[in-house]
Amino acid sequence: MPTLTTVPRQRSAEATRMEDEPEETNEVGLWRAFENQASAHGTVTAVESDGYALSYTELLSKSLYTADRIYELDPWNRTPIGILIPRGVSHILAQLAIVKAGRACVPLDTRMADDYLESVLANLHSSFILTDQENAHRLVGFTRLTVEHTVNKENYLPGLCLSPQPNGARSSRCSHIFHTSGTSGKPKAVKLFASGLINLCRDPGANWSKRGHRVGHAASVVFDISLVEIWGSLLNGATIVVLPMETVLDPLELSNFIRHQRLDVLQLTTSLLNVTAHACPSAFTTLDTLITGGEAINCQSIRSIFDSGPPRRIINGYGPTECSVYCLWHCVTPREAQHACIPVGKPFCNVEAFLVDESLVPVKAGEVGELLVAGAGVAGGYIGDEERTADRFISFPRRSSDGFARMEKTRVYRTGDLMRRDENGVHYYIGRRDNQVKIAGHRVELESIESILQEVQGIHAATVVKITPPELGRAPLLVAFCVPTCPDITPVAIAKDYVRRYPHSLMPRFEVTDRLPLRTTGKVDRAQLERQYTRAIEDTPARPKPGPWQESSLEAELRYLWLDVLGLPNKDLEPTDDFMTMGGNSLMVATLIARINHAFGISLRASALYENMTLEGLTHILTRIHRDGQATVPVHTNEEQLWLQDSQLGRRLHRLPESPVVDDWEAASEGRVFLTGATGFVGAFFLAQLLQTPTVRKVCCLVRAHDKAHGRARVQQTLLRYQLHPSHIDKLIILAGSFGKPHLGLSIEQYDYYADWASVVFHLGAKVNYLATYSAHRDDNVLATVHILQFATHKRTKPTHYTSTIAAYGPTGLVLGTKFLPEDERPAPHIPAVHYDTGYAQSQLVAETIVWNAIDNGLPIAIYRPGFVLGHSKTGVCNPDDFISRLFASCMAMGSYPRLPNQRKEFVPVDFVVNALLHISRSRESLGHAFNLVHPHKGSAIDICTGFDLLNRVSPYSMRGTAYPEWVQSLSMRPEDPLYPLVPMLREKVLDDRTRWEVYEDMAEYGRSSLHSALSAAPDILDCSSMDQLFERCLKSWLGVLDAGRGIDLRIIEGDM
């Protein structure tokens, strides 16, 4: 073991630059506080990871050894030490050793490039790093020490440590340096003192953890919140349990980890908490304490946790890095979550919070002011940036209640956050005051991006502004106004160089300008830039309704609209560029259609855009409209010809001549189910039911995924999303493939094996997109049906149960005058009606026709047509992204609903559909027939107005009926609305003056006789919930869609059935 010298040396200026506060010899620093815990609880496990564990005594010994190795390699130096080690035991050991050595810890992101890390450390005058074996080859110009926690140094005695800091870093010294605003480019190095960390971790009110607690370590070590997990445990005698990254990101795995590892305390960022709470709200039931922070808390997520069995307490923490992780905290109550008003709470002990106006005068209770923070935890400033430090860390005069300043002053940090404080001293977060903003969940400082742009080639000056577009509800965006060094510099060139230099940074939209407007103070007038840009958006050129178009400028305007809607920097577009492959989605399609119709004074169908997704194709359509003098685009006749031709498919499908049909797929020698659609709403419930069925031995789910792991994750997330926790999950087999591809996207070996393996096939998968054309649905709905039937007859003939939809008949009541539809009525005769329906309905008509063709050839197939599937009759869990959930949430938010006479809807709970499907599939008598899975009681079908009457009775929001055109117009003015992406479909007139929805007037009655006959032996299934009961139970889910507002994914219009 090396002997270390203790000969004193002269300290350099750099060596003392971390010690800005006076030393106090009687204080207890971080190391002594940890050492006390190790002395008192030496045999207690300090940290464990993946089966490896260290006691407090063992961790102490290894830390002492590593501290002496630091001193041996770099004696008497006091500059910070970088830690190039990811989350884990070795990283924790490294922090302890550095603190013992009296140095400051600088956690580094191992994912970042070496040149970036070198620049970060250069700013700190640091030349020493600790690494693990995996990163030992990096940063070759630095003094490096490899930390390996498995090396046996348990017998290293504390008395042998020759580090010159017997107590480690004192509380008045800098113990950690964290870099903030990393998403915006060059980060700021924030200097944190041990005193703030000790004060936070030992706060008697928050009481993060105690001896015996097992604390999850889930945060990245480059984020300051990881200090709560590490030091909040070590200073209180708790056990740190390291979570693998893949566990943190997988809600189901996280839920299992919490239970199996018996965690007591867990901290998650707001974003991660939202994902987990959405997918598995019961994940936190066994915890003592759940801590969240970093962004505004999501009330819906917290409500779902409370409703599903909450931990003993949920703490909402607030605090920038400059205040040592957290400075305010609050224990959330169910009432606060229910009323969507969760505060950030009160200060920790020894921390003060002031709310002031722009003149730094304190505001009264109930008024909004900027938060200033004083006391323990306030950072020492930004290393290497004295100007910014002086701006953010100021001397603040204490004022009495009469407003007069007292003599004493205190050092405070200006957070830039606006808050309101109630009479009880509880703080509520309002928003940002300055240019430190949040974009897509990232904290971004505009000045940091401007600093980056100063280094981008060809830019003389630049100012970045956050802009919220005035129309169409698009998300806020960052716009960088750049003054080029020469006229040839373009936004494209700027973007390319920006990405090359800072590939991990948030990229703004670039605008080139010849000058930046200045205020009288000489500073850039950001407000004027924002007004100019907003005005440019508002003045998007629209063609005058009378008068000729200029064809030469048509493509140029279309290019502008594309880029604007996609939110891309101005760039050259190729004629063959595809809107969707460039990042478009259903919401953007709706937005683009609205913008095109407004700009050119036309009525472009959604189907026209889906049929012509390239810039060249869409330009051709608009040119044709201009030349033909039309205001609308006619239905594409090629589409209809295609689906009429496809209706002949399936006629060549036959049973294997020498292969008997599986007689009983639940027999002891069978029981192997091949299932599609498990990631859809009905499919998820059906999968859960299959897994819990004793006669089902295995369920193989074909899932669209990159690989098996990805497919399993998709299925698990879907189950959790709908609060499904089926037993016997070990029965599940995941097969990554695609039913839209030949051989289901499988290898020949897989295809042959599972075709021989399966006892029965359930095909529940389908693509549902109300805006897309038939062609867009063809692969996944039509050709997929052919592929599934081919699979069902390969190797051996297997009974197949195919789910269609009552929409396969289209609006046959109005168009053809159909009054009644028996269950075995084939959809082919109703082709004239489906002509006026969506591409999805057309694809379902063709797919079911193909199935009937196969039935005529002797294939053993049963057809099931669900009605409008609502939530579970007991839990009320709905699909938040389907049309009905969006419709009801939208109408509650608007306070109105469309009056649509004679519009009967066949609502049915999802558990009835699943139970009926499974029961009927057990009988061979079902093969060759179809079953309408609608409510078994004939009188339960209600018209849409009655449905809204029921909703009005149970909803806290009052709605009034309005004329359909008026309602759609109101909806089109609400781009944040969950139903907004469907506005093109809701507006599109397809038959005279009737829209796609209005043509469903006078819909035929759906037969139920076969359904009743098949379920005669299952009265419990036939005893289906009434509409009153169903609406009451589903209300909670619909309110969740409403409450989520912008929080829900408005882009999800397309998905599995």
TrEMBL record:
InterPro entries associated with the record: ACP-like_sf, AMP-bd_C_sf, AMP-binding_CS, AMP-dep_synth/lig_dom, FAR_NAD-bd, NAD(P)-bd_dom_sf, PKS_PP-bd, PP-bd_ACP
Region (Disordered): 1-25
Alphabetically ordered keywords of this record: Phosphopantetheine, Phosphoprotein
This protein's record includes keyword Cell membrane: no
Name used for this protein in its record: NRPS-like enzyme
Pfam families from the UniProt entry: AMP-binding, NAD_binding_4, PP-binding
Gene3D superfamilies (UniProt xref): 3.30.300.30, 3.40.50.980, ACP-like, Luciferase, Domain 3, NAD(P)-binding Rossmann-like Domain
Statement: the UniProt record of this protein carries the keyword Nucleotide-binding: no
Domain of life of the organism encoding this protein: Eukaryota
Entry coiled-coil feature ranges: none
PROSITE patterns, sorted: AMP_BINDING, CARRIER, PHOSPHOPANTETHEINE
All residue ranges annotated as the Carrier domain in the record: 549-626
An MF annotation (GO) of this entry: phosphopantetheine binding
Family the entry assigns: Belongs to the NRP synthetase family.
